[in-house]
Amino acid sequence: MNRLRAIFSVLLASYRRFVADDGIAMAGYIAFSGLLSVFPFLIFATSLTGLVLGRQYGGEAIEALFRYAPENIAETLEPVLREVMRERGGRYLTVSIIGAIWLASSAFEAFRVAFDRAYGGEGKRHYIARRLRAIAFVFLGAVVAAVLGVSIIFAPILLRIAENWSHIRVSGAAVAVSFVLGVLVFVLFLLLMHRFLPSHRMKGLRLWPGVLVTVTSWVAGAMVFSYYLTLTPTYAITYGTLAGVIITLVFFYLSGVAVIFGAELNAELISRRAALRPLNNADIKPI
């Protein structure tokens, strides 16, 4: 009972931090930046995969990632991405890629602002340094998306090889392996964002609670949101042809809420530890 009361106390205090730091407004900022950045980011990830593994695998990797996105989001983003890639083709990797990377970095800058509000330290890093770090995360995110997409593609092939070699049937395991791999990559990428995006370099072990809460709430929220859309298909009636864009924007907004709340929870736990013992720079190391 005491443990449940303590957990509830931390969650309530984290929610109050979330409200005090304008988490609702910041989630909206992240949603807008994410919607603006998602196509340049996916095009860059597709092009990068195509350069490394061949153009065919670039498209297949992104298509594999869309299989694990909520259906309505995939139906909105995938056709537009295919159309843009078909129009631009290999010519996309020219000067225009600089603009794509810059736009995609805006989403990571939005997360940086939210992390700085949660962890403290706004404005303690030069603008150029902040933007370069955001651009570095664009490259890292593109590599993660490409690796994850290719892993999803090749998981059934590798499992089939394992079946032939071990003579043990593992049919159906490909979906489970891909899902677990996706969650692990998502967790590690979030951990890197929490640690290196803020203006203070955060200590990794102190970030796990918020990251796990973010992943759990994001997965649950995506499932509930997808189920909700099947029960109340009124978006098309209300928004017409913009329904897909609105649904994507709401999904990005909920994702922003999950990430920001995780950061606020970490900040609350760090604050409580600091109240119990001297900080001594154990949790936060200024850059």
Summarize the structure.
The chain has 287 residues and is mainly alpha-helical. Helix content is 81%, strand content 2%. The chain has a two-stranded antiparallel ribbon.
For the CA atoms, what is the radius of gyration? 20 Å
> Low-confidence runs (pLDDT<50, min 5 residues)?
none
Order of helices and strands: HHHHHHHEHHHE
- State the helix count: 10
* Shape assignment: globular
| Helical residues, percent | over 70%
- Taking the alpha carbons of the first and last residues, their distance comes to 41 Å
Lateral arrangement of strands in the main beta sheet: 1-2
Strand content: under 5%
Number of domains: 1
Q: Sheet with the most strands?
A: 2 strands, antiparallel
Please tell me the overall pLDDT: 76
Q: Structural class, please?
A: mainly alpha
Overall number of strands:
2
Outline the structure in words:
With 287 residues, the chain is mainly α. It has one domain (2-286). The protein has helices spanning 2-20, 23-53, 55-67, 71-88, 96-119, 127-166, 173-196, 208-231, 235-239, 243-276, and strands spanning 200-202, 284-286. A two-stranded antiparallel sheet has the order 1-2. It is globular, with a radius of gyration of 20 Å. The N and C termini lie far apart (41 Å).
